[in-house]
Design goal:
- The chain contains 16 helices and 15 strands.
- By secondary structure, the chain is of the alpha+beta class.
- Strands 5, 6, 13, 14 and 15 form a five-stranded antiparallel sheet that branches. A four-stranded antiparallel sheet has the order 2-3-1-4, with helices on one face. A two-stranded antiparallel sheet has the order 7-12.
- Strand 10 and strand 11 form a beta hairpin.
- Helix 1 crosses helix 14, helix 11 packs antiparallel against helix 14 and helix 13 runs antiparallel to helix 14.
- The longest helix is centred in the C-terminal third of the chain and has 34 residues.
Amino acid sequence: MRKILSYFIKYPIAVNIIALAFILFGYLGFKSLTSSFFPLSESRVITINLTYPGASPQEMEEGVVLKIEDNLKGLLGIDRVTSKSLENAATITIETLKDYDTDVILADVKNAVDKVPSFPSGMEPPVISKKEATRQTINFAVSGKDVPLRILKLRAQQIEKELLRMDGISQIVLSGFPDEEIEIAVNENKLRAYNLSFQQVAAAVSKNSLITTGGSIKTEAEEYLIRASNRSYYAQELENIVVKSDVNGNVVLLKEIATLRDKFNETPNSSYFNGNKAVDIAIQNTNSEDLISTADKVKAYIAEYNESSMDVQLSVTSDASITLVQRTELLFENAIIGIILVLLILSLFLKPRIALWVAFGLPISFLGMFALAGQFDVTINVLSLFAMIIVIGILVDDGIVIAENIYSHFEKGKSPVRAAIDGTIEVIPPIVAAILTTILAFSTFLFLEGRIGEFFGEVSIIVLLTLLVSLVEALIILPSHIAHSKTLQKGTKPYKFNVKAEQFMDYLRDKIYMPILHFFMKYKIVGFSILVALLMITIGAMKGGIIRGT
């Protein structure tokens, strides 16, 4: 270690290249990191969506769901299988174990579903997919005074189309309104007049609203697929359905015997904003999309839309980027305050130039961490920012110890280079031990199971990378900078505030600390009794409710 340290101290150009590399690659790494509210995690959920028009929940359960669940038994990597049966549909949710590849299990699930001998006639093909990992980004309401819900929905659908054209926005969910349906109100008197029954009307509508395949026709040149696609989605499209015809060419259209209109069903599903009906639009991000940039684009769109629209307004109801931006601002504030405090305190008791080089280690450590963070799929999120805020208070400790010890050796008459080498070598064991114990303490998060382990594991990664880079900075970059600083030159006079600060520290050491230390060394039982008393007071305060817990 001495040879390595001596080399970098004697050749400061190599140290400057390392520092420049940290700065350059750290900046590039920071710009490449995406932002998310929580750490990214791969989806371990597979869903099977089943649709069977006209089936009751019991029929879905007994005729479809149980058959699939029986075939899923015995598949490796499945943690839990849950199902939900409703009218006309059912959903089977499969959660996979952490150590298994979800894509491989997805293929096994598809094979298991294909092994089901038969499904009920009229059931649509099962849809098997891996659930996309998405996170809430920003929600806003589409509302207006006395604006009908149908108009709000149409506006929301238009807004959805416009937002999907933007880069970085792919997941949008509309809510706040019931499902739409087409009401066909048949007039009983007209049915009798045309000698029709309700069953005939229902059959005519059913035959004219279907999507089905009719096989294929093979020729020598190519193959033709026959497919009927005649499903209507609006009442106006159903008005001209022929309900009855005769040999003379007379026809009875649906609109002649019934009133058709588009309406919402009777399910109570509605949202209000400031007392007015509203449609909620939720923007979500996938693992490849950036939260902050997405939120900024949406807010810019909302501001532009509100300026051009008079009857309908867009109002943000929740914005996950606010918390993320506030945490980022808090991090920068803490970093600036930390650097200022380091400069002030070290300038008092050492030298301003030494304080500057110690404070220089703070941004270098973070930039080095950013250069490596991309290899561990780290993002800018509330937990990674929390880890950065925690580690700020730890970073400068080793630098302060090394700088003070180097200056102490210089005061003994050694040359700057020799003082830097001896001063650093002398404190390497305690500094490495302190860094390793902190790393071990935070590395326990990496061994937590489940989602908690995935979330707090990123805290460990941030702390570990930052501390390792700070160790390199403190043992290689800092000694070289101090050794070649003008501060370690003979003949430099100390500043007056350095003299006053040293006199103050001597007074604290000789007049206050030393007498107290001698007293407790002489009467050890007194010092031990104070600790026991404080422990008993703390326990009593917790039992008495003074110190509350949750």
